[in-house]
Every structure is written in structure tokens, then in C-alpha cells.
Amino acid sequence: MDAPRLPTRVIDVDPSLPNPRLVTKHEERDDWEPYTALSYCWGKSQATMTMPDNLSRHTTDGFQFSALPRAIQDAITVARGLSIRYLWVDALCILQGSSPEATADWLAESSMMSDIYGGATLVIIAGDSQDCNMPFLYQRELVTTSRPSRDGVLDREIPSAHRTTVPKGYVDLKANTWPTRAWTLQESALSRRALIYTKDQVYWRCAFGLVGYDAYLHVLPRIDSLPPVVHERDYWPSVVTEYSTRFMTNPADKLPALAGLARLHCESNDVTYAAGLCLDTFHSGLLWRTEYSEKRHPSRPSHWRAPSWSWVSIDGPVDY
């Protein structure tokens, strides 16, 4: 298993410790270690956060396991089960709050998402979660199916059926909350390997494909919802189109929630990025239009966010 460089802060989930605790690069440890990262929905009930006034306590005393949100508890359980010592969770590893110290830390860390999710040995995706207090480790419902088989004597075959119990098939992740959130687009797209926990299945996804614990290799739409593109110049417009359909709690996150994916794309193609557009395709990037639906109408944010020629200046779906 490869050992990437650890983010600024990670949670040490070593089961021999009294409590999981926050560790930083300032401590005496090897910065090149495997780690997992959690992708989940905060919801409205994210009560446990690291802030400037409790940072010292979280690094010294750690977190009481039973007091953590259920999604984070389950992520710790998965990491321990895989013998991966470190876990990254945004609410605990990035300083939260409105103080200057927290704001500066959030801006610095949110710009590093391409390294954090791209460097993780494994990303744990709570695909069925609506908020952080929903567990994702539970017994999945099984269904009984019939698999054709043949029993026979000499040349006379009598069809029969072999009954077996298997997990339910792939569910459309779009029907859940997780894939509708803006931040989760890059968290999924940047991950190299992922364990995806849906209501009915657990999937393993890597560069070779997606397989469920029904042991079938699934040929399925990408869970980040980005369509395949024939020409490289079409990639970023497809990202913008998908991203603009998603929701965020804080409208000011419009650019930061895509910064990691933008950084990776622009560095890989040696292009400059400004206000949501790639400058190598700047002219065509200006040709966006708003999309209206019965459920959602595009609108301008209450505070200035980007020039009016950028799609970032609009809240709501856009297309090219």
C-alpha cells in the first residue's frame, strides 16, 4: 500500500490509544503514511468541530468516540479494520468558525483538496447519508433471486432454479443527498480508490472499475456524475454543468468547493484558471447559459462573488 504525504492535520485512530486524537505536522512523526479520508454530508447537526479554542484539547485529550457523529465513528471503524492509522475528516482537521485564525486555516486547507483526497490511500464515501449522525455501517437488506441451472440424466435435461440470497443491485446515487452536494463532486472525482456505502450495497471503486459485494463487476455511470468526454476542451464545461446543479450551505463556497479539481485540471494541462474559467478555452467558456426548471431558478447571490461574465456569479444550473 502506497504511503502519501499526510495532510496538515489527521486523526490518529490507533485502537491502542485511549481516544482518537488530532495530530499535526509539528509532532515528531513520519509525514509519509497511508491515510483514509471521509466524504459525507454534514447536514444541520455537525456539533463536533475543531476550532481555535479547542484545538489544543483535541490534540492532547482527543475525541471521546461515543460523542462523535455516527458517520465519523463508522469511518474510524473502517480505518481500524483496514489497519490504516490515520483518518482525515474536514470538520475535525480544518479549523472551523469565523475567527481570523479559523478563516485563514480554512482558506489554506480548502485549496489543498486535490492533495488531500487525491493523496488518500482510500476515500470512504457515506453515499446514503443525509447528515453526519447517520451511520453507514449496518446490515444491508438482502433479496432472494433465482439463478437458472440444469439437472439431468443422460440426454434429457430438466430445467430447475437455484435460489440464492444476494444484496440488492446498484441504486441510483443521484436519489440520495450526498451526490447533490457541491463539495462531494471533487471529493469523488479526486479519489483514487473508494469504498462507497449505499443503502443496499457496498462498492469498491478504483481505476479498474466498480465492484459490489455481490461480486459482480458493475459497468455503471461514474459516481461523480461527470460524463465521458471525447475532447479535452470539453472536460471543464462538463464539470461546470454538473457542479452548477449541486447545492451548498454557504454560497461563498462556490469557488473553494471546486478549487481542488480546478487545480488538478489546470496543473495537468498547464493552463491558467480565473473565476471558474480556464484561460486556454476562455472565449468558449463565456458561452454559458442558465438552465431553468420547476424546482430551481437561477439567481444572483446577495454578495458579489465573481464577475458577471463568469458562471460563478450565478446560483443555479448552467449549461453550454
Descriptive overview:
The chain is built from nine helices and 15 strands. It is of the alpha+beta class and 320 residues long. It has two domains: 1-137 and 171-224, no CATH class; 226-320, no CATH class. The protein has a nine-stranded mixed β-sheet with strand order 2-1-4-3-5-8-9-10-11, sandwiched between helices. A two-stranded antiparallel sheet has the order 6-7. A hairpin with an 8-residue loop joins strand 1 and strand 2 (21-24). The longest helix is centred in the last third of the chain and has 14 residues, at 256-269. It is globular, with a radius of gyration of 22 Å. The relative contact order is 0.11. Residues 35-187 form the Heterokaryon incompatibility domain. Pfam families: HET. This is Heterokaryon incompatibility protein-domain-containing protein.
Q: Strand-residue fraction?
A: 15-25%
Number of domain units: 2
What is the helix fraction of residues, given as a range? 10-25%
| Major sheet | 9 strands, mixed
SSE blueprint:
Elements: E1 9-12, E2 21-24, E3 35-39, H1 55-60, H2 70-81, E4 86-88, H3 90-93, H4 100-110, H5 113-119, E5 122-126, E6 142-153, E7 156-167, H6 182-190, E8 194-197, E9 202-206, E10 209-212, E11 217-218, H7 235-244, H8 256-269, E12 273-274, E13 277-278, H9 282-285, E14 289-290, E15 318-319
Parallel strand pairs: 3-4, 3-5, 5-8
Antiparallel strand pairs: 1-2, 1-4, 6-7, 8-9, 9-10, 10-11, 12-13, 14-15
Helix pairs in contact: 5-6, 6-8
